[in-house]
Amino acid sequence: MLISRGLNLLKLSCRSNKYKVSATNTRIIRLSHDNHSYRDFPPVEKGWVYAAEFFGGLMWWWVLWHLWHDYGHIIGEFPYPEPSKWTDEELGIPPDDYPEPATRKS
C-alpha cells in the first residue's frame, strides 16, 4: 500500500517538474524596440559615445605628439656617445701585436 501511494506521488512530482523552467534559462521578453535580457546594460546615449570617441582621439593625439616631439622620455635624456671616439679596448678589439689564437688541428 505504501509503494502504490509512493509511486503516485512520484508520478505527480514528475508531471509537475515537466512544466517548470529553470531560473537560469529564463529570458525576459519585452515588447519594445530593443531586445534586452535579464541584467543587460541599458542602451548608451549617442552623446556619450561621441564624447568617448572624442576623448579617445584626443588622448592618442597627445601620446603621438609627445612621442614625436619629446621622445627623450622614451629613449632617456642623455647625450648619445660618439662611436668614432671609442677606443679599441672599449670595443673589445685586441691590439695588433696580440698573438694569434691557437687553432685546433684535427
TrEMBL record:
Keyword Mitochondrion in the entry? The reply is yes
Q: Which GO terms describe its biological process?
A: mitochondrial respiratory chain complex I assembly
* Annotated GO CC locations: mitochondrial inner membrane; respiratory chain complex I
Kindly state which keywords UniProt assigns to this record, in alphabetical order. Electron transport, Membrane, Mitochondrion, Mitochondrion inner membrane, Respiratory chain, Transit peptide, Transport
Q: How does it sit in the membrane?
A: Peripheral membrane protein
Subcellular compartments? Mitochondrion inner membrane
User: Which InterPro entries does this one have?
Assistant: NDUFB2_animal
User: What function does the entry list?
Assistant: Accessory subunit of the mitochondrial membrane respiratory chain NADH dehydrogenase (Complex I), that is believed not to be involved in catalysis. Complex I functions in the transfer of electrons from NADH to the respiratory chain. The immediate electron acceptor for the enzyme is believed to be ubiquinone.
Q: How does it assemble?
A: Complex I is composed of 45 different subunits.
Q: Which family does it belong to?
A: Belongs to the complex I NDUFB2 subunit family.
The name this protein goes by in its record: NADH dehydrogenase [ubiquinone] 1 beta subcomplex subunit 2, mitochondrial
